[in-house]
Design goal:
130 residues, 0% strand
Length: 130
């Protein structure tokens, strides 16, 4: 439950930064830094279903929030991010079907996946200038 509150706090701080600094670069750096904190939170192993679901929703809500507040078209987000999200959702669904519970794998591939999502979104946010 604490991770859910931290993730909501990160999303709120990001929204405030994006609303106050519309056309400058520092909010992009702040957003990537906050996303990095979300990445660190992701590496904690938890069996709590609320933490697991909030983890997945964080990685969906964060880029949508930034793209919505910056008025950027979401088409750029769908290229690689949705593909990575589909793969992770498929693995989560297979894990649920096999074990009858929601769990997050803590394998090297899982950590590599979340880091690639972080790197992809960071690159998009930092290189996108409006």
């Amino acid at each position: 439950m604490r991770n859910l509150v931290l993730r909501l706090l990160i999303l709120g701080i990001t929204a405030i930064c994006m609303l106050f600094y519309k056309e400058s670069m520092p909010p992009n750096f702040i957003a990537v830094f906050l996303m990095f904190i979300g990445l660190i939170l992701n590496y904690k192993i938890s069996e709590n279903p609320i933490d697991i679901i909030s983890n997945y929703l964080f990685w969906v809500a964060f880029p949508v929030l930034i793209y919505t507040l910056r008025n950027w078209p979401l088409i750029y987000l769908t290229d690689s991010f949705l593909f990575l999200l589909y793969i992770k959702t498929f693995v989560l669904a297979c894990s649920y079907i096999k074990h009858k519970k929601i769990s997050v794998t803590s394998s090297f591939i899982s950590k590599l996946w979340i880091f690639s999502v972080f790197a992809s979104l960071s690159e998009i946010i930092l290189n996108r200038v409006c």
